[in-house]
Amino acid sequence: MEPILLVHGGAGNITDARCPGKLTGMKQALRVGIKHLIPNNDLSEGSALDAVEAAVGVMESDGNFNAGYGACLNFEGKAEVEASIMEGSELKAGCVTLLHDIMHPISVARCVMQNTKHTFLGGEAAQKFALEHGFEQLPENSLITEDARLALEEFKERQASGLDTTFARTELDVKQDSGEQEPG
Amino acid sequence: TVGAVAIDCNGNIAAATSTGGITGKVSGRIGDTPLLGCGTYADNLQGGVSTTGHGETIMRFNLAQKIMSKIRYEGKTAQIATEEACKEMTERLTGTGGAITIDAHGRLGIYWTSHRMGWAYVKNGEIFYGIDHGKQFKEQL
Questions:
Q1: What is the rounded CA–CA span in Å between residue A3 and residue A47?
Q2: Are B16 and B3 a contacting pair, CB within 8 Å?
Q3: Residue A65: its chain B contacts at CB < 8 A?
Q4: Angle at the Cα of B25 (from A12 to A82), degrees rounded to 5?
Q5: Nearest chain B Cα distance for residue A110, angstroms
Q6: Is A147 at the interface with chain B, CB within 8 A?
Q7: How does residue B87 score in pLDDT terms, banded at 50, 70 and 90?
Q8: How does pLDDT run across A133-161, given as a tens digit for each residue?
Q9: Count of CB atoms within 10 A of residue B122's CB?
């Protein structure tokens, strides 16, 4: 079978200004990830799992994407990140949520899959697990970009002025509405 | 949100998704991304999916699993399954999103109901990519 690697870089109201960075970043993710799909090279025997982790890892390091470095901010101005990974031969999977100041949550998710009998870790326990397994705790707010700060400022201004803030409400019981923002 | 789906030469499929959520979210909010069957799914017998978009909508609709079910039980191709499930989600729940899919035969599905979705794939030494509906670009790997 011909190996294939397919990626996405998020959906929503992506502005024209953000398109070039996303397209460049996705192509870079493919170029790094595809090396893991080619059999008999120096990196691997051709692993779909390695390929998706590597491709996502590239985009997590790229501030053009809403993941890892460049993640959207919560109302308190913090980046809380989450990820999941799954392989289709034995249906093994790993998931993490509410991590902070860790660059590659996708690799933490894979670590959960491969090193625990559990599937999903969250919050402080997930953070502790990551650090215990060698992931670097970056200085506080290291994942925050200027674009993310500006987006939160704009969100708060819109909220204060009563304008539509699309789905990103701070009330947990908000009704569904029809807008969208970039990117969920 | 970012995501990836791959199939290797042995037919093994994997999927991965990572996100920072949405701007202004409540501290402690969890979206679809870490939820299997919502943001991510992979099964060599059916295919692999990674989704993106409005998390509350996608998790309530179980978008990834809906796509898999259309492939498994309705015999749909990855493209048809992805397109139908995304449209049904938005028709039912209003919220928008998209997904990328590779089925067990190596066929691709790419669709979104949002304004835009960035996507790209590499196959046979060529990169295909796009971000707007109806526009696709190609270049050498």
A1: 9
A2: yes
A3: 1-2
A4: 80
A5: 9
A6: no
A7: very high
A8: 999 999 999 999 999 999 999 999 988 88
A9: 25
Within 8 A by CB and 6+ apart from B33, the residues are: A82, A83, A84, B1, B17, B18, B19, B21, B39, B40, B51, B55
Distance CA B141, CA A45 (A): 20
State ipTM. 0.97
The Cα–Cα gap between B44 and B12 comes to 6
Residues B90 and B51: beta-carbon distance below 8 Å: no
Q: Looking at residue B25, what DSSP letter applies?
A: B
pLDDT of res. A56: 98
- Dihedral of CA atoms A16, A20, A26, A31 in degrees, nearest 10, equals 170
Both tokens assigned to A107: 């690799």
Residue type, B15: A
Helices A105-115 and A48-60 pack at an angle, to 10 degrees, of 150
Could you identify the residue written with the tokens 């200004």? A17
Q: Does B108 touch chain A (CB under 8 A)?
A: yes
Structure tokens at B61: 């609709």
Q: Which amino acid, A4?
A: I
Q: Which of A138, A151, A140 is nearest to A184 (CA)?
A: A151
